[in-house]
Design a protein that fits this description.
By secondary structure, the chain is an alpha+beta fold. It folds into 3 domains: 209 residues, Porin (Beta Barrel); 153 residues, no CATH class; 109 residues, 60s Ribosomal Protein L30, Chain: A (2-Layer Sandwich). Helices cover 23% and strands 27% of the residues. It contains 12 helices and 12 strands. An 8-stranded antiparallel beta barrel has the order 1-2-3-4-5-6-7-8. The chain has a 4-stranded mixed sheet with strand order 9-12-10-11. The longest helix has 22 residues. The chain is rod-shaped, with a radius of gyration of 59 Å.
């Protein structure tokens, strides 16, 4: 027993330093062989001797902590009979038996470690014995050869050498159901101790394949599933994408052999754990850009079809309109890219689409057309007059009795010109009037010449002559009292009458 204890200590130390990747609960059908010794514990063998024992077995793990084992052994059990010497047998004759134990055992392993696995065992079986030598006081009525039942029990330790091979040591006590192993009955024994038994210890090797239902890498897939899928049963993440093979197959339905199942440029692990995108869909938000391009190239949100909220999808901005998907107003004109494209038909890459000097946003605010450059320049001051009505051009001054226009009249004449220039459909009649001082015929001619002078000024500035008529009305249609200087001043006037 001292030797067996020393071997167990060495086995434990060895287990702590030998690396391995599988546990014994994952073992499937296997077998092994062990060699060691046997010490008889029979009634009449006082001086026990260690003899050889070999044992072969088949083993199968059918639960996480239990293995079943069927084994057969071959060995010898021996000892000298000192008792016989006291009874006149001076040669101290020996008892030597050949034994063939056959049994079924259950191995219980409640504690499973990475590199080693202690166990206890118990079982039942039969032993075929054959007494090759018997002591002098052998009872002749006892059979020297035959079968008897027995129960083995003991402890052991398994040490994984690699995925399929283990070093094993065990030792135990084997209790026979009668005392025939030494062919001596209890009645003839001077030193009877009850039923026969023997101690044994074994060291050896076991070889086993892994169970199809085992999951040595702990990824959630059994060996059988990993074989079918082609994944690595020793690596919980075969494709290195950050997801276990089991989660890929059973939870996310991704391919455990492809790090990027949908080919969008993001690993399945990043899609699931980091970006929350769909690892089975290359374009999660359906904006026309792959999730990978959104994350790495365009810096857009792969979960939002319109990252900047401008009314255009990220894909349309990048691929169709070439606008910035991170900037709602790419050209900075005050209009969103979506409004420019969909509502106003302006160019979202140009602040001033029509090139008329006013940006698109300001044109919309001014209610001008951002596609027409002619309305970009703010209108100059003009005269507001309705069709069929006249307005006095206050400020036109002539020399007394003359039709020469004084420089002081320039401002009001410019407004008349702006009216015609900025409104191409307007047509007017320039009407001249005088007070009632002087000859009416002379006043009529003077008023006509003054109306003609205003028309000439406008035509010279660029207004087509057919848009301007001129007519003198003399002292007719007074608007003031000709009896007063102030009234006469009001009557000496030029009117701007809108014909069209």
């Amino acid at each position: 027993m001292k030797h067996f204890t020393a071997l167990c200590i060495l086995a434990l130390l060895f287990a702590l330093v030998v690396p391995t990747s599988a546990q014994f609960k994952d073992v499937g059908l296997g077998g092994g062989i062990g060699f060691g010794g046997v010490f008889g514990q029979t009634d009449d063998l006082v001086d026990k001797e260690s003899r050889f024992l070999a044992r072969a077995f088949l083993r199968y793990g059918f639960a996480d902590v239990v293995q079943g084992e069927l084994g057969v052994g071959l060995g010898r059990m021996a000892g000298s009979n000192r008792v016989g010497k006291f009874e006149g047998n001076q040669d101290g004759s020996n008892a030597i038996a050949q034994i063939v134990p056959i049994d079924f055992r259950l191995l219980l392993s409640p504690f499973s470690f990475t590199n080693w696995n202690p166990f206890i065992y118990a079982g039942a079986g039969v032993i075929h014995y054959d007494m090759e030598e018997t002591p002098g006081n052998t009872d002749p009525s006892v059979k020297k050869k035959g079968w008897l039942g027995y129960a083995p029990a003991g402890i052991g330790i398994q040490i994984r050498l690699d995925d399929n091979t283990a070093f094993e040591m065990s030792g135990g006590f084997n209790y026979a159901f009668n005392d025939n192993l030494n062919t001596i009955t209890s009645a003839s024994q001077a030193n009877a101790t009850g039923k026969d038994a023997y101690w044994n210890f074994l060291i050896g090797l076991t070889v086993a394949g892994e169970s199809g239902s085992a999951d040595p890498d702990g990824d959630g897939l059994t060996n059988r599933e990993e074989k079918q899928l082609g994944t690595d049963k020793k690596n919980p993440d075969s494709d290195g994408d950050g997801l276990s093979d089991g989660d890929e197959v059973h939870k996310y339905r991704t391919n455990p052999l492809l790090a990027d199942t949908d080919g969008d440029g993001l690993s399945d692990g990043d899609e699931v754990l980091k970006y929350k995108t769909d690892p089975l869909k290359a374009d999660t938000d359906g904006d026309g850009l792959s999730d990978g391009d959104e994350v790495y190239k365009h810096k857009t949100d792969p979960l939002k079809a319109d990252t900047d909220g401008d009314g255009l999808s990220d894909g349309d901005e990048v691929l169709k309109y070439k606008t910035d998907p991170l900037k709602a107003d790419t050209d900075g004109d005050g209009l969103s890219d979506g409004d420019e494209v969909l509502k106003y038909k302006t160019d979202p890459l140009k602040a001033d689409t029509d090139g008329g000097s006013v940006n698109d946003g300001q044109e919309i605010a001014n209610k001008t057309n951002p596609l027409d450059p002619t309305d970009d320049v703010p209108k100059k001051k003009e005269i507001k007059v309705e069709v069929g009505k006249a307005i006095v051009l206050e400020g036109i001054v002539f020399k007394t009795g003359k039709w020469d226009i004084e420089p002081a009249s320039e401002e009001i004449l410019e407004q008349a010109f702006n009216t015609l220039d900025q409104n191409k459909d307007v047509q007017v009649e320039i009407r001249g009037y005088t007070d009632n001082v002087g000859n009416p015929a002379s006043n009529m001619r003077l008023s006509q010449r003054r109306a003609d002078a205003v028309k000439a000024w406008l035509v010279k500035k660029g207004i087509p002559a057919d848009r301007v008529a001129s007519k003198g009305y003399g002292d007719t249609n007074p608007i003031g009292d000709n009896k007063t200087a102030d009234g006469r001043q009001k009557n000496r006037r030029i009117e701007f009458f809108r014909v069209k």
